Amino acid sequence: MERVIVIGGGAAGMMAALAAAEKGCRVCLIEKNEKLGKKLFITGKGRCNVTNAGDMDTLFSNVRTNGKFLYSAFYDYDNHAVMDFLERTGCPLKTERGERVFPVSDHSSDVTAAFSRELKRQGVEILLNKKAEELLLDGAGGIEGVRLSGGRTVRAEGCIVCTGGLSYPSTGSTGDGYRFARAAGHQVTACRPALVPFNIKEEWCARLMGLSLKNVSLRMVCGERETYSGFGEMLFTHFGVSGPLVLSASSFYASGKAGSTTLYIDLKPALDREQLDRRLLRDFDQNKNRQFQNSLGGLFPAKLIPVMVELSGIRPDKKVNEVTRQERAGFGQLIKSLPLTVTGLRGYDEAIITQGGVSVKEVNPSTMESKKVRGLYFAGEVLDLDALTGGFNLQIAWSTGHLAGRSAAEAYC
Questions:
Q1: pTM score, two decimals?
Q2: pLDDT at residue 42, rounded to an integer
Q3: pLDDT score recorded for residue 1
Q4: CB proximity list for 185: less than 8 A, separation 6 or greater
């Protein structure tokens, strides 16, 4: 039989198929969509943040769940291996702020095209518009093949499940892999959207829709405990907040009692309280004959000013030279800790990844093979692995996919 089946033609699946084929294995790649890499086309707003160029410590420190499980995978096929592969196969790359790596063209299609060319060159059989319905097991606790929709059976002793999670279901991520895993006796941990925007209670949030804040700090407090803090960029939307800072914070969000989680934005993180007070005094002195509402142009974007005036409790038409020390101190506190009440996460339709998945306790980290079913492998988002934004989740997909593909080929081809 000497063949390996890969279910799912996303990042992990394409990499797994290539890694197996490079070992001389006959590979059949099954994809239910009309093309490979459908989710890749929309990652990074269509630019595809393929990996992060940071060192190994950076990779591990940005993994949110089960980082130790990835030791073998990351060292088997690291970020530099990914970059070398894409450059070599006709997709030149560039590195931007935060060590984020993108195609020079800013087109995610170039990444998928590079993989497609290489898959063709390696002779991988690709079945598009074909849905895997069921894993076929033999009587001895091993893989026998896969049954497709329509009844066709593809036989193989090795099968790699790379079906993704539940995020962006329009791209085909509908939890098929979890169903396969459970049918094979695997535990699937609780799943929820991650790297996803927040719904916010305060109505003024919607008035700021479209406003992007750069170089701000964000803290998240659940009950009495601070669960996240970060620095960067965020965006106001019609429902709440989004942007890189917020998406990262969402991975640390623990859903519980409504209103028990609050975000605090520091609009001037470069200034401590005393420095900010001196800045306010200087700005007020330069505008001493103006009304309070007309004196803040140097502090905030124009769209934010009416909201800050309203929340300050200071009368909008009050002359700046009449603002009291107490009022100024309260305004400084607001600038350093603008509160937003979280009412929940947005859904899988807007989530970049899924948190939770196939329990890594039941998968061999050195090969990605199931500890329960011989010849069954898992790679990518279907596993209970997730990371913060910045190219780290795709690196998990590349690394686990490559290790699974290589291991399956060595064992069954």
A1: 0.91
A2: 83
A3: 45
A4: 372, 373
Distance CA(317)–CA(312), nearest Å, equals 13
Burial of 135 (0-12, 13-18, 19+ CB in 10 A): buried
> What are 90-101's pLDDT values in tens digits?
999 999 999 999
- Residues contacting residue 129 through CB under 8 Å, at least 6 positions apart: 31, 32, 33, 34
pLDDT for res 2: 59
Strand order in the sheet with 100-103: 51-52, 100-103, 93-96
Sign of the C-alpha dihedral computed for residues 245, 251, 252 and 256 taken in this order: positive
Tens digit of each residue's pLDDT (9 = 90 or more) over 120-172: 999 999 999 999 999 999 888 899 999 999 889 999 999 999 999 999 888 87
Per-residue burial over 18-56, b if 16 or more Cβ lie within 10 Å, else e, is: bbbbebebbbbbbbbbeebbbbbbebbeebbbbbbbbee
Please answer whether residues 148 and 133 qualify as being in contact, where contact means their C-beta atoms are separated by less than 8 angstroms.
yes
Q: 332: which residues sit within 8 A by CB, 6+ positions away?
A: 273, 276, 277, 280
CA 358 to each of CA 56, 68, 190, 355: distance values in angstroms, whole numbers, following the listed order? 24, 16, 9, 10
Using DSSP's 3-state secondary structure scheme, residue 236 falls into strand
Q: How far apart (Å, rounded) are the C-alpha atoms in residues 323 and 329?
A: 10
Beta-carbon contacts of residue 374 (< 8 Å; ≥ 6 apart): 140, 141, 142, 143
Classify residue 73 as exposed, middle or buried by CB count within 10 Å of its CB (0-12, 13-18, 19+).
Answer: buried
Pick out the chain residues at pLDDT < 70: 1-2, 255-259
Instruction: Tell me how far CA of residue 196 lies from CA of 49, 66, 131, 345, 392, in angstroms.
Output: 17, 20, 28, 7, 15
pLDDT, residue 75, reads 97
